[in-house]
Specification:
Organism (chain A): Lactuca sativa
Number of domains of chain B: 1
CATH topology of the largest domain in chain A: Cell Cycle, Spindle Assembly Checkpoint Protein, Chain A
CATH class of chain B: Alpha Beta
Distance between the termini of chain A: 116 Å
Low-confidence stretches of chain B: 114-129, 189-210
Number of helices of chain A: 29
Largest sheet of chain B: 4 strands, mixed
Strand content of chain A: 5-15%
Number of helices of chain B: 4
GO biological process, one term (chain A): piecemeal microautophagy of the nucleus
Order of helices and strands of chain B: EHEEHEEHEH
Oligomer: heterodimer
Shape of chain A: elongated
Structural class of chain A: alpha+beta
Protein name (chain A): Autophagy-related protein 13 N-terminal domain-containing protein
Number of domains of chain A: 2
Radius of gyration of chain A: 36 Å
Helix content of chain B: 25-40%
Number of strands of chain B: 6
Largest sheet of chain A: 6 strands, antiparallel
CATH architecture of the largest domain in chain A: 2-Layer Sandwich
InterPro entries (chain A): ATG13 (IPR040182), Atg13_N (IPR018731), HORMA_dom_sf (IPR036570)
Strand order of the largest sheet of chain B: 1-5-4-6
GO molecular function (chain A): protein kinase regulator activity
Helix content of chain A: 40-55%
Structural class of chain B: alpha+beta
Mean pLDDT of chain A: 54
CATH topology of chain B: Cell Cycle, Spindle Assembly Checkpoint Protein, Chain A
CATH class of the largest domain in chain A: Alpha Beta
Shape of chain B: globular
Distance between the termini of chain B: 23 Å
Strand content of chain B: 15-25%
Mean pLDDT of chain B: 73
């Protein structure tokens, strides 16, 4: 046992690191349920067909460590890699039993993503989510969690270790050889022990049957010991492996475990288990402790079943407490799906009822844009069609022209989102998700948003446009079917199909495309909406005409006329509302067009304005 | 150590114990093999060494044979590990010396069929109510045995972990395990077990019997 003083500490450290890795591997290998059931035994048989243990032809380097070949365990491997870097930190592995209420409804309850979460996230990420033990009893959908095993693997280094190691000590107990040998032994014991503990039965249960169980095992690996609550701790028994002493410190493996895992797993139909456990526990504490787990359980398992059926998202939405955000796992195979579901509906506090564009379109303001923005953050990959179909193919609503909300709905839905995709191509610096919402923000300035998007070179044009567009809004308010014409002209994408634009013509149609219609009464429009609105609109038109008559001379500058008209708009509320709708719809639609389109439109507006002014001047 | 083992249970009980010991003493590269007992809810681990398995089974057969022949005796099986020292071969023919460094004694009190003889069992039966149904009794007995078997396995683990210094350095192994032998003895002396156990541990006791 010659000891090379230089390489010895390095060797020791390597052994210890590998020891951590191997321990974790051993533990998780027998606690982390496989995807497919029971194939491992077959695999084992293949592994050792004969006395080939010493034949290392197929031996991977990992297997050679501690002379113990283990099966692959992805969960362990992914954690091991992490631990190799954070050398010599304590390693705490909690094995958690998750149980659903007994009559948990598999179909109605959405599968829970925690398992996936636990497994997939890297170790560091996982730490913040380590349970408070108090909440062990609750999963988010009424399932219960219980830490049934806590393994602590740690290396306690002595002070002065470096000197001791680098000094040429060569007693057998300090050598890396001795350490290695003892580590082998400890790991063998660990390997046997994990199979003797009650949790192993659960693990086997989960693996051995194809059927879905109402319980599952998950694990959490961390570097810090989260204190257990007293009750749990009292229930647990401790098992300490004799530490391996080295010249530099001690290698410990200790274990806290539940000597009896509550009857809920007695689905396993082992008539013996209730009988051998008391004997096995053996300690005077055993009996009272054994009762304990069953005391809190009943209130969750059988009696709380009605509450356990909550859909995960609604449950999450109703519960403000942090644990609710962490649903408990289920062994369902649809991890990834459930996860997306969860992120869509569970994580953020605005489940889909909030997301129809209704709310945002009614208040085309920045805050709505933000809300949506937030949603988009979560639903980044949710295609916008989710939104539009619900609203755009709704001609009936649309026809209820007096219903501003619905008009808005209509105008907001498709036009907003269809541009979204196009805007992605625009050479714009701003966020895609923000863009669709900016137009509503400037609801009275139909083309502004477009200009903004196009380029800064158009700043001047924008101002001009703004001035003109607002008057156009005014004019719209004064005629009966402004939104019709606007939407048709601007958003034929969504409306032309369900909507024959020829039918919609207002007395004061200001549509850029349809100046012809100008001055024609709205009655010819065959739709209900135009019919309904005809009278009030006409009244409004009359009012406007009156106002215009009283208005200052034609020479007034654009700004003044613009402001005056805005005031007018507010006088007849219904008309103003529809006006808003129209303008906002047009504004939303405008992004579809090119800048030149917008400019043309502007020109048309200007012409219209001139025409209108002229008319009013004449009359 | 183990009492009230029924005849048909002997094999599994011994397999379980012996292999668990071997697993801690076969320090060469092993591919562990989990074995579920049929009669008990226990999973133990084998080294995945067919030769070893074969030997163990042979010995267990011998043991069962013996139990059949001498049903009233305490039966013992001993697993010994030794180092082989090549004595400087001189004029003696005895070239090889077995240096024992560890011996495990397993006492099994085999139950008599109609009614189990509960020797000095520390798991004394609660009540031997004649009105109790046979199957219930059997279940209880089985459960008791299972739990003591469980305990034995934990004892092995504990012992193996507490005492490590006496284990010789791991040779570059051809075989999985240190050299070992399994011996069977029986005695009517009930005190035999523990005394022997201690004595044997202290003094290597070469037994050439195989």
């Amino acid at each position: 046992m010659a000891v090379n003083p230089h390489s010895e500490p390095a060797k020791m450290e390597q052994i210890i690191t590998e020891f951590f890795a191997k321990s974790l591997h051993i533990i998780l290998e027998s606690r982390c349920p496989y995807v497919s059931s029971r194939n491992y035994s077959g695999e084992q048989i293949l592994y050792s067909p004969s006395s080939s243990a010493s034949s290392s032809s197929s031996t991977r380097p990992r297997d050679k460590w501690f002379n113990l070949a283990l099966r692959d365990c992805p969960a362990a491997l992914e954690n091991i890699d992490f631990w190799r870097q954070s050398n010599l930190e304590p390693m705490v592995v909690d094995v958690v039993l998750v149980q659903r209420p007994l009559n948990w409804d598999y179909t109605s309850s959405s599968p829970n993503p925690r398992v996936a979460f636990e497994r997939n996230s890297s170790s560091k990420d996982r730490f913040p989510f380590v349970w408070k033990s108090d909440s062990d009893e609750f999963g988010s959908d009424g399932s219960t969690e219980k830490i049934i095993e806590r393994w602590v693997v740690q290396y306690e280094s002595k002070k002065g270790c470096k000197e001791a190691c680098s000094g040429s000590k060569r007693s057998s107990s300090t050598s890396s050889h001795a350490l290695y040998k003892k580590s082998i032994l400890l790991l063998r014991s660990l390997y046997v022990t994990v199979r003797l503990l009650p949790a192993y039965k659960i693990f086997r249960e989960i693996n051995s049957s194809g059927q879905i169980r109402s319980f599952n095992l998950i694990h959490r690996v961390s570097s810090s010991v989260e204190p257990l609550i007293r009750r749990d701790e009292a229930e647990m028994q401790q098992f300490m492996f004799t530490p391996v002493e080295t010249s530099c410190g001690k290698l410990h493996i200790s274990l806290l475990y539940l000597p009896s895992i509550s009857d809920t797993t007695s689905e396993s139909s082992t008539p013996m288990s209730p009988q051998f456990i008391p004997d096995y526990v053996g300690s005077p504490l055993a009996d009272p402790l054994k009762r304990l787990p069953s005391v809190p359980m009943p209130q969750y398992s059988p009696s709380s079943s009605p509450f356990g059926r909550r859909h995960s998202w609604s449950y999450d939405a109703n519960r403000a407490s942090p644990p609710s955000a962490l649903p408990s796992p289920s062994p369902s195979p649809t991890y990834s799906e459930s996860r997306t579901l969860h992120s869509k509906f569970g994580n953020h506090p605005h489940p889909h009822p909030h997301r129809p564009p209704t709310s945002s379109s009614r208040y085309p303001s920045l805050e709505i844009a933000q809300v949506h923005n937030k949603d988009m953050g979560y639903d980044e990959y949710v295609p916008s069609p989710n939104f539009s179909p619900s609203t755009s193919p709704s001609p009936p609503m649309y026809l209820q022209g007096s219903n501003m909300l619905k008009v808005l709905l209509r105008s907001d839905s498709a036009p907003v989102y269809i541009p979204t995709s196009r805007l992605g191509d625009a050479p714009l610096s701003s966020n895609k998700t923000v863009l669709p919402f900016s137009p509503p923000h400037k609801g009275t300035r139909p083309c502004l948003s477009l200009l903004e998007r196009s380029s800064s070179a158009l700043q001047g044009a924008k101002l001009l446009k703004e001035d003109h567009s607002k008057p156009s809004g005014v004019k719209i308010s004064s005629n009966s079917s402004p939104h019709k014409s606007f939407s048709r002209s601007c958003s034929r994408l969504s409306f032309e199909d369900s909507y024959d634009d020829s039918e919609f013509s207002g007395p004061f149609v200001v549509d850029d495309d349809e100046l012809i219609d100008h001055g024609i009464g709205s009655r010819p429009g065959s739709s209900d909406r135009s019919g309904n609105l005809g009278t009030p609109h006409e009244r409004a038109v009359g009012a406007l005409v009156q106002m215009l008559k009283k208005a200052p001379p034609l020479q007034q500058d654009l700004n003044r006329s613009h402001s005056l008209k805005q005031i007018q708009i507010q006088d007849p509320p219904p008309v103003a509302a529809s006006n808003m709708a129209a303008s906002s719809s047009s504004s939303r639609v405008s992004p579809v067009k090119t800048t030149s389109d917008a400019l043309e439109e502007l020109k048309v507006y200007m012409d219209m304005k001139q025409l209108l002014l002229r008319q009013s001047g004449k009359s | 150590m183990l009492s009230d083992v029924e005849y048909f249970e002997i094999r599994e009980v011994l397999q379980c114990i012996l292999h668990t010991i071997f697993f801690h003493r076969a320090l060469g590269l092993v591919r562990p093999k989990d074995i579920d007992l049929q009669l008990f809810e226990i999973t133990y681990v084998q080294c995945g060494d067919a030769e070893l398995e074969k030997k163990v089974d042979e010995k267990i057969d011998q043991f069962i044979d013996k139990v059949e022949k001498h049903p009233n005796k305490k039966n013992q099986i001993c697993l010994s590990f030794f180092e082989v020292k090549n004595k400087q071969a001189t004029w003696f023919t005895h070239k090889v010396e077995h240096l024992y460094w560890e011996q495990w004694y397993i006492n099994i009190n085999v139950a008599q069929h109609p009614k189990p003889i509960s020797g000095k069992s520390h798991h004394s039966k609660l009540v031997l109510d004649p009105g109790e149904s046979a199957s219930e009794e059997r279940n209880a007995r089985r459960a008791t045995l299972e739990s003591s078997l469980h305990e034995v396995l934990f004892q092995i683990i504990k012992f193996v972990n507490e005492k490590k210094d006496h284990i010789p350095p791991i040779p570059n192994m051809e075989g999985v395990s240190f050299p070992y032998e399994i011996t069977i003895s029986s005695s009517s002396d009930s005190a035999f077990g523990m005394d022997m156990f201690k004595r044997m541990l202290q003094t290597g006791h070469p037994t050439m019997l195989s």
